[in-house]
Amino acid sequence: MVVVLDSVRPRHPEKAGRPDTPLIPKPAWIRVKAPGGGAFIETSRIVREHGLHTVCQEASCPNIGECWAVRHATFLIMGDTCTRACAFCDVKTGLPGPLDPAESSSVADATAKLGLRHVVVTSVDRDDLADGGGAHFAATIRAIRAKSPGTTIEVLTPDFLRKDGALEVVVEARPDVFNHNLETVPSRYLTVRPGARYFHSVRLLARVKELDPTLFTKSGIMMGLGEVRNEVLQVMDDLRSAEVDFLTVGQYLQPSRKHHEVVRYVPPEEFEELKTVAYAKGFLMVAASPLTRSSHHAGEDFARLKAARAAKLPR
Ligand code: SF4
Fold it and tell me: Which of 236, 173, 232 lies closest to 205, judged by CA?
């Protein structure tokens, strides 16, 4: 009998046989706060005690030192193993285990313990589930609402590709912000996000607004994956056609030499310029900088988003 120990299984078996990608040195503007300190340790303890996963840890987010120092963790639900194998992502891939029915209340408890006024909940892709995990997302939203009625809720969902009805279930649970990242421009999809379809993702975002125009919608892309400027502008137009409110644009960072290479480090001035263009195209909010991530400063950004919508309403 052959026993395969989980600890020796690579995190990304589909990438293990690939040749190493080139590494270009990080520029001076990619600087992050080192993790540590009292609040960081406390956040880490609360996450661990509730048996939860965070995308901050699983995706090796560079902002973890900054975010956890203010107790802002983004929960990763439905396990730590993803059924997709995107070329940029550091979340473990493989066949996940069954859902934990107690997870929704654990997320609600941890949200209350951390004292979060705005919580972000994301998940791995669960192509193995009949509803892609839609009902589990909805249960988690409801559990947080019941425990912390004053907390606003942002979900960052998978694309629910071929999971008819899943999106509707999530929208019915009424998160405050519905986020789904396009990640990159359409020409890079087959390389960067091979299990996904660009127009399906755009359509998903448009459908959220059709189902409930009061929800805020949000999406993001990474720079440095081989995209060209005109394609980025086209993505902005596509997102505006889907009436997306909030755009995030950040620099892709390579988790390992088996992941997609960083084709280019985009200088901060170029992010500023993209931000100006995006505002001109009609987004209510734009966050664009090398270290922008979907959930970075999500609470403060949500307050600004609400204020921006209110300022546009007729008086
Ligand atoms: S930016 Fe988001 S994923 Fe990264 S550490 Fe902050 S909350 Fe976590």
Answer: 236
Burial grade of 243 (CB within 10 A; 0-12, 13-18, 19 or more): middle
In this prediction the pTM is 0.95
Dihedral angle sign, alpha carbons of residues 237, 240, 242, 245: positive
Per the CB < 8 A criterion, the answer to whether 155 and 217 are in contact is no
For 256-274, how does the pLDDT look when each residue is reduced to its tens digit (9 = 90+)?
A: 999 999 999 999 999 999 9
Q: How far is the CA of 5 from the centre of ligand 1 (A)?
A: 30
Q: Distance between terminal CA atoms of the chain?
A: 73
Helix (H, G, I), strand (E, B) or coil at 293: coil
Ligand 1 atom showing the smallest separation from residue 73 Cα: 7
Q: Atom 1 in ligand 1: which residue has the minimum CA distance?
A: 296
The predicted structure's pLDDT at residue 182: 98
**Is the C-beta atom of 126 inside 6 A of ligand 1?**
no
